[in-house]
Amino acid sequence: MLNFFHWEDVGSDFPFYRDSPSSLTFRQWWLVVAATAAAFMALALTATLSGAGLFWPFLPAIGLAAIPLLALARVAPEHWTCLFGRVGLREVRLMLGFALLNIVITMGLGAIVLALGHTSSNSATSQLGSLDALELIAFFAKTLPQLLGEELITILPFLALLHWLTQSLQWGRKTAIVAVWVLTSVMFGLLHLPTYDWNWLQCIVVIGGARMVLTLPWIMTKNLWVSTGAHITNDWILFGVGVLGAGLAGKV
Q: Which residues contact 226 (CB under 8 A, 6 or more apart)?
């Protein structure tokens, strides 16, 4: 097995797209991908639960992670946990490093999009400054399962497409990786269209670009904890800056 780039962990390969640890059939992949779509739709349709107290908004956030994992566990009961690897000092460093890299790149992409037109704000995060301490704790806690779910609704289609391109279309591994890396990043950006007022340029360039960076630790390590940790660190830094900024503005 040839590595994608020199930074891809030596001897590692993606699970489920071929025989290691097991290869899923196309019917099984359809079930898994359908479950990821259902989980996202449940989250989108229950977005109004943000005003339904502290507990209820956790349900769709948990479902975003639980539904795809349950589907994967159904078709690969002995191997579904291979998505998750160990977490040591190296993995923590990668989480922090990719999170900081993503913030820098996102800021650059955002500046380009702003120069070409305009950017839209995330209405949910723009209201963080109005939350009290308990509501802020609940908000940050809810992001833990939700961001794990966002990783799953990216990585599971990544693996399904990789399986299709390499096994059915006989694409080379490196070409297929690049293709699914780009495709799933654009898909992730498009899923954010309602969040960012249907700003296509922002969602494809900024959100899709950020997703490309956050997928890199997955390609590198094949460990979903690393990409999830980078995603959580990235978002928590941005949320924290937003809360701090709102607090300072309130004192002026």
A: 85, 87, 91, 94, 95, 98, 217, 218, 220
Q: What is the Cα–Cα distance from 51 to 48, expressed in whole angstroms? A: 6
Residues whose CB falls within 8 Å of the CB of residue 178, separated by 6 or more in sequence, listed in order: none
The lowest-confidence range among 20-34, 124-138, 165-179 is 124-138
d(CA 23, CA 149): 22
What predicted TM-score, i.e. pTM, was given to this entire model?
A: 0.91
Q: What is the pLDDT of residues 206-233, one digit of tens each?
A: 999 999 999 999 999 999 999 999 999 9
> Tens digit of pLDDT for each residue in 56-79?
788 999 999 999 999 999 999 999
Grouping H, G, I as helix, E, B as strand and the rest as coil, residue 163 is helix
User: Which candidate, 218, 67, 110, places its Cα nearest to that of 154?
Assistant: 218
How would you classify residue 12: left for phi > 0, otherwise alpha for psi between -120 and 50, otherwise beta? beta
Distance of CA 13 to the CA centre of its chain: 20
- DSSP conformation letters of 185-235: HHHHHHHTTTTTTT-HHIIIIIIHHHHHHHHHHHHHH--HHHHHHHHHHHH
Give the residue carrying structure tokens 């590595």. Answer: 3
Nearest to 177 by CA among 143, 139, 215: 215
3-state secondary structure of 127: coil
Predicted pLDDT of residue 4: 57
Query: For 247, how many CA atoms within 13 A lie in the half-sphere containing its CB?
Result: 10
